[in-house]
TrEMBL record:
A GO biological-process term: siderophore transmembrane transport
Recorded topology in the membrane: Multi-pass membrane protein
Gene Ontology CC: cell outer membrane
Organism: Phenylobacterium zucineum (strain HLK1)
Pfam family, one: Plug
Name of the protein in question: TonB-dependent receptor
InterPro entries linked: Beta-barrel_TonB, Beta-barrel_TonB_sf, Plug_dom, Plug_dom_sf, TonB-dep_rcpt-like
Family: Belongs to the TonB-dependent receptor family.
Entry GO MF terms: siderophore uptake transmembrane transporter activity
Amino acid sequence: MGRAGRTWLAGAAFSALAAGMAQAQEPAPINLDEVVITALRVEQPRAATPATVQVIGQEELTAQQALSQSAVEAVAALAPSFSPTRQKLSGFGETVRGRSPLYLVDGVPQSTPLRDDSRDGFTIDPFFIDRVEVVFGSNAIQGIGATGGVVNYVTVSTPGEAAGWTGKVMGQTTFDDSGEGDSLGYKLAGIAGRDFGVWDFTAGAAYEKRGAFYDADGLRIGPDSTQGDIQDSDSFSLFGKAGLDLTDTRRIEIMANHFQLEGDGDYRVVAGNRTTGRPTSGWRGTQEGRPPRNKVTSVAATYRDRDLLGGTFTAQAYGHDYEGTFGGGREGTFQDPRIAPVGTLFDQSANNSEKLGFKLDYEREVQAIPGLKYLVGLDGIRDKTFQALILTDRYWVPKTTYESLAPFLQLRQALFDGRVHLSAGARQENATLKVDDYVTVFAAGGGVEVAGGSPSFEETLFNVGGTVTVVDGVTAYASYAQGFTMPDVGRVLRAVNTPGRDVDTYLDVEPVVSDNVEVGVEVARERWRASLAYFESKSDRGALLVLNAGGTFDVQRQKTKIDGFEATLRVQATDWLTVGGAYSKLDGRTDGDGDGTLERDLNGANISPDRLTVYAEGTWGPASLRVQAQTFESRSFEGEPAANAFEGYTVVDAVGTWRLEAADVSLGIQNLLDEQYISYFSDTQNPTDNNRYWAGRGRTFTLTVARRF
């Protein structure tokens, strides 16, 4: 079947769906109930939260999973100021409001801040996610890493008081519009649980085989053989959760998640040509070395007592073990004439991070002051990180241990029958970085000895804010909050090339502190809701990604400022049709020469383009249809090479679902109009690198069959 035939088939399928929907008459009103945001460490309603928050529910996630193959892409499609994804295993350069978000799974941090490899978005299969809580803007309530906000994946749980076993099984297949057989992928997943009364249990497994990706011109998209790719890969995931109700108010819950994604290594890079506009492609052939992969295991135990001395006490202990293997090469950094002649040594690296941590919270009302609540807590974490060159058994980044102990206090005051909520808090971060004596790789000055040390820092982070219910359904808010993260110390440690250095005096561990100011208003009426937020984020000593002469990125401490606004609208036009959209605009500047003046734009590795999203959802009886479009506007960068300008593009997606008695059947079409475009990262970075001139995916079909029981 030719391209025109496949286009006709896609249109016919959705026309038939729409016709079938028109025969039913069941309304689907907008749910105006207030949302509870657990990512803020307390069960706090939206009306009391002085920040932009978004909760992506199960139905929205299910629709997006019929279009994309990762939780990151699902969030990026729905969150207004999330940057375009790279459609690769690495999320390098993917930001929220121009800064990196902190990814959590049930509150467990997934990031690797000491050697940030941007793989933290691929640590759990989306099949096991019940909802996603996105808190926009810098904050420190969850600790290190949330300079752009928090993305908390809340996992599925067994429904309470359910009769017998409940669960879900799913089969899915994905194939490219090109009709090439190697584009075929499939997924099988299942989860089941039961409430036995005083205890409950849920367990599941998922396996996914991904095929090759093709662009809209029918050209196979080249693999990212260095940072890793999700195309031509296999992933396997196990998930379990068990809970025990000790009393009516006390409960202990254990969650375990194992996720592994590994490339097949069946394709090699064919360089593109930026001059002629031909993107990087791939051809059949075995890649050298071990395939890139993510391997993650997280375990968390949570105890909650809702009636401890009149308050609620929560304790969580967690462990997180991560290994990220990267593709190999004969880069100059890997060369060592003591092992092999210069230019011949092939090697590859793996980033390793082991975390142990705990979180203690206690929240209680102050009886003497009506409406006043306090939250007091203590967080502790130990993160051991190193980066090894795995084929020659060398350390590229030495074993580095980050230890932190952080007490915090948060106050919330409700006034005027809950129409006004005020909040203020402080967090005292006390951190130490421990590095033993080590020797750099030969490429760094011939291999120099570096004396270890234990540099430390103390930082107090503040927040203050308030919300006002102006009239019923209209809430205004304003806030100031600080977030922080570590500079990528691993990049610094591995690059020391001068003898006589020691970690205590050479390594700058001063945290990257971002100050976030935000004002906004939200309106919720019977058939429509809207929001508008303005934000400004500053950092006196930010961590900017700057391209070096070798084609990789260094972290430079530069003053930065980002400001912008987000607007959203959702309208229930009729009982069966809902339409909506969002617009986000960002501006970012930095001080490249250190004179205190913000004289140049942040580049494409540090800020996303302005974006408009629109969608329409129709639901009648057992059928539903969602059509969505994302427009990323063109952008140029003052102070950057003209070749790094972004042309912009628009992508339209659609997904239709039939809810039959036997199962739910959905057909998702990504890039419905088969738009040919170059990805944002490729278009705005390193204009001389033809091995990373990647196009985005062309029209792609995903057929899903799922049954709940």
